[in-house]
Design brief:
This protein has 337 residues and is of the alpha/beta class. 41% of the residues lie in helices and 18% in strands. Helix 5 packs parallel to helix 6 and helix 9 crosses helix 11. It starts with a strand and ends in a 7-residue tail after the last helix. It binds nicotinamide-adenine-dinucleotide and uridine-5'-diphosphate-4-deoxy-4-fluoro-alpha-D-galactose.
């Protein structure tokens, strides 16, 4: 079985490439490297000892994508390609709508033309908006607070409509919580462009001495220690969730939203302390006011994933912190030499 991964050179994509290759799937990657590098593909090959085709193509490019479908017999698609920075999406919303929606429409039209009907989509817990009903389950009403989130919301709807119109089509809408960590080899990991916004890359920068101190955004939330609580999930667990989703898509028809989270919430202080303990490295921090737009607490109900996909996250916070630090130490400047 051959799976096309759009955005397969990115953070979650590379880890999913490894998981799928190790399970014996054939893969093809389509990426324009707008937020990644071909070196990441070389590293996937190094980890797995397996070869595969990768196309340097913009998924919005119709003739370019038709070539990918023309030259390969594709059975299923995982659509990671997209722009993902919340703040940037507020500054340049049209670019986000154009890239994220157009790439999805191009892909779906190619799939229709070439008779490919199994689709797995990278959605996000951001579609739950400001909901306070923890744990979040898939029946929770959706709604967003920023253009990035709306692209995910709209694509979910496009996929539901596509499935409603074609009884043979199946789509799994995977709503990721907070992926962190890296492959245990330290060969692939998250390599954010410029100054990172997310907690783990900022912890890594601080521990590595690139930042003097981590800014903890708010210690007055209604949480056990006052700092924000999130459902951090090891990226390798997340990757394995995609393999389970592919199997589900092949065996079921229709569109199904499924959370990929652990069901556990950890605070910013718990993250800092676990990181320091596991890696014997200090993470100095300063307390700052709340970051605009942040909610106090967000964690998943992982029940549907377990029931439908037979998948459950296995790796704990200590492993996430250890593997993230291992990647950082082996690649102090990311993929750049
Ligand atoms: P990433 O930026 O590392 O990977 C995305 C990849 O898509 C990159 O390699 C980029 O070059 C590529 N890409 C973007 N637009 C493209 C286009 N038009 N044509 C071809 N390639 C294109 O991001 P990631 O963290 O691996 O995220 C993967 C997906 O998961 C994204 O859709 C993201 O929105 C979603 N997601 C990520 C998180 C997270 O915290 N990392 C959380 C929820 C959802
Ligand atoms: N935080 C800090 N200091 C930092 C960075 C973050 O205290 O330097 C705190 C935040 O306030 C929050 C927690 O750490 O309480 C996690 O923040 P992240 O930025 O790592 O993650 P978010 O949950 O805010 O956002 C992530 C993704 C979004 C996605 C959202 C919901 O980055 O793309 O989850 O799924 F929309």
């Amino acid at each position: 079985m051959t799976i096309l991964l759009t955005g397969g050179a990115g953070y979650i994509g590379t880890h999913t490439c490894v998981a799928l290759l190790e399970l014996g799937y054939d893969i093809i990657v389509a990426d324009n490297y707008i937020n990644s590098t071909p070196l990441a593909i070389d590293r996937v090959k190094e980890i797995t000892g397996k070869n595969f085709k990768s196309y340097d193509v913009d998924v919005c490019d119709i003739p370019g994508m038709e070539r990918v479908f023309e030259e390969n017999k594709i059975d299923a698609v995982i659509h990671f390609a997209g722009l993902k920075a919340v703040g940037e999406s507020c500054a340049i919303p049209l670019r986000y709508y154009r890239n994220n929606l157009d790439s999805t429409l191009t892909l779906l039209e190619c799939m229709q033309k070439y008779g490919v009907r199994n689709f797995v989509f990278s959605s996000s817990a951001t579609v739950y908006g400001t909901s306070q009903n923890m744990p979040l389950d898939e029946k929770e009403p959706t709604g967003c607070t920023n253009p990035y989130g709306w692209t995910k919301y709209m694509i979910e709807q496009i996929l539901r409509d596509t499935a409603a119109a074609d009884p043979e089509f199946s789509a799994v809408l995977l709503r990721y919580f907070n992926p962190i960590g890296a492959h245990e080899s330290g060969l692939i990991g998250e390599d954010p462009n410029g100054i990172p916004n997310n907690l783990m890359p900022r912890i890594l920068n601080t521990a590595a001495g690139k930042m003097k101190a981590l800014t903890v955004f708010g210690n007055d939330y209604p949480t056990p220690d006052g700092t924000g609580v999130r459902d951090y999930i090891h990226v390798c667990d997340l990757a394995e969730g995609h393999a389970a989703a592919i199997k589900y898509a092949v065996e079921h028809k229709g569109a199904e939203a499924i959370n990929l989270g652990t069901g556990n919430g950890y605070s910013v202080f718990e993250m800092i302390h676990t990181f320091e303990e596991v890696n014997h490295t200090p993470v100095p921090y300063t307390l700052e006011p709340r970051r605009p737009g942040d909610i106090a607490t967000c964690y998943a109900s992982p029940e549907k994933a377990e029931k439908c996909l037979g998948w459950k996250a296995k790796r704990g916070l200590a492993e996430m912190c250890r593997d993230a630090w291992n990647w950082q130490q082996k690649n102090p400047n990311g993929y750049k030499a």
